[in-house]
Amino acid sequence: MAARFDVLDGIEDEMMYLEHANHCGNNRIGVIVERGDPFEDLGDRKFEERFRLSKETVWWLVDQMNDRLEFPTNRNNPVSPMNRVLATLRSYATGAFNIVIGDTANIHRTTVQRITSEVSEIIASFFPRFIVFPARADLQNVMDGFHQIDGFPGVIGTINCTHIRIQSPGGDNAEHFRNRKGYFSLNCQTISDHNLLIRDIVARWAGSVHDSTIFRNCARRAQFENGEIPHGYLLGDGGYACKPYLLTPLLNPLTPAEQRYNRAHIKTRNTVERQYGIWKRRFPILSVGLRCGLQKAMTVITATAVLHNIARSTSNEEPPEDPQMVRLLEELRGLRGPDIDDDEPVPQGELMQRNDAVPGRAFRQAIINQHFQ
């Protein structure tokens, strides 16, 4: 795999040469670089392949952020708000090193690092606008949407966790982030709706933490427990404890009604797995891995979740795949070993450790008796 990145040495040498040329003696030579215009240079399909969003969506996004990205003057040829957003999107689309992103956009790698941090923080700050749990006015629409999948009533979301690969965070607690497959990750919980929108996200837990622990400690569970969400329930896999507000599949369905319940549960719960697939295909950085500090990694994950919802709200079509990224991801899977797949069955040991509450099991049986007989 190292051979793939040998070209970086040549790019590094060129960048060092340019820096040297710009600092001859004690006099700095001003160099004005021309930055291309992808809107003019690329067709619609190629643009979306490169930046993972349509031209119209990018224009809209820049308009939303322009006041926070605009420089007061044009001194020193600052990077425009549009090019700052495009550099960040290209980073999300490839997971490439800053020097490679900078080389394609005529931006220095340290500037790329600063740009991606700033833009990611701004996009992540849109979280309250674009990642919204169904409110009372929206609950019935969500329930109806889930019911149309396979007749499962009362569902307001499907829940699961996905592992996002990160570099070692260092420090005394670094090993806490190593998951059961042996690599460093953040275990990120999301709740999906029937349209594959991310309705809730928790992106701060280490890779060694179990899914059920994340849910037990999240604000959404507290709202269910306190009666702040009085209607509907979530669907989760067998790694969660069965609760009146979180229904899990039966471990050994025996009757025809129980088997129908399990089939409908699996088919309906599949929405969260599909949501992960679309999210990660749109932003391959989530599959390649995040080469940044821990806090920035959390910010990038949240920012891409916001962009996922914006993209889903404007179009249900996925962006065209970049053939080079497809090949790279295949090579990485062969060299790094298996990731924790989003649709991977819950390990038997984790199933045995569940603490199914009696009210949860009773509520589940009532649902089976009323709707799946």
Can you put this structure into words, describing what you see?
There is one protein chain. The chain has 17 helices and five strands. By secondary structure, the chain is α/β, with parallel strands linked by helices. The protein has a five-stranded mixed β-sheet with strand order 3-2-1-4-5. α5 crosses α6 (98-105), α5 crosses α7 and α7 crosses α14. 35% of the residues are buried.
Strand order of the largest sheet: 3-2-1-4-5
Describe the largest sheet: 5 strands, mixed
Number of strands: 5
Overall form: globular
Label this structure with key terms.
single chain, alpha/beta, 17 helices, globular, disordered N terminus
Please give the structural blueprint.
Elements: H1 7-21, H2 38-41, H3 44-51, H4 55-69, H5 81-94, H6 98-105, H7 109-124, H8 127-130, H9 136-150, E1 155-165, E2 185-192, E3 198-206, H10 211-216, H11 219-225, E4 233-235, E5 246-247, H12 256-282, H13 285-288, H14 294-314, H15 323-336, H16 348-352, H17 358-371
Parallel strand pairs: 1-4, 4-5
Antiparallel strand pairs: 1-2, 2-3
Helix pairs in contact: 4-5, 5-6, 5-7, 6-7, 7-14, 9-12
